[in-house]
Amino acid sequence: MNTAFMQMSIPKLRPVSLSDIDEPEDTIVSGGIPVYD
Predict the structure, then answer these.
(1) What superkingdom does the record give (predicted)?
(2) Exposed (0-12), middle (13-18) or buried (19+): which is 7, by Cβ within 10 Å?
(3) Which of 29, 31, 33, 35 is the most exposed place for a label (fewest CB within 10 A)?
(4) How many alpha carbons lie under 13 Å from residue 23 in its C-beta half-sphere?
C-alpha cells in the first residue's frame, strides 16, 4: 500500500457505528474500523 493512500486514509478512520453499516458501499472494513477512500 502506498504512503499517499495511507496519509489520506488515516485522518478518516473512525469507530464502527450503525450509520457506517448502513453505507457499506462507502466503507472498507479493516480490523473492524471503516476506512473511507
Answers:
(1) Archaea
(2) exposed
(3) 31
(4) 11
**The Cα angle at residue 28 between residues 27 and 32, in degrees rounded to 5:** 105
Q: Which residues contact 8 (CB under 8 A, 6 or more apart)?
A: 37
What the block records as the C-alpha cell of 4 is 499517499
The C-alpha cell at 35 is 476506512
CB pairs under 8 A, 24+ apart, for 13-16? none
Task: Report mean pLDDT in 10-residue bins for the chain, 37 residues.
Answer: 58 59 55 58
- What pLDDT does residue 35 have? 60
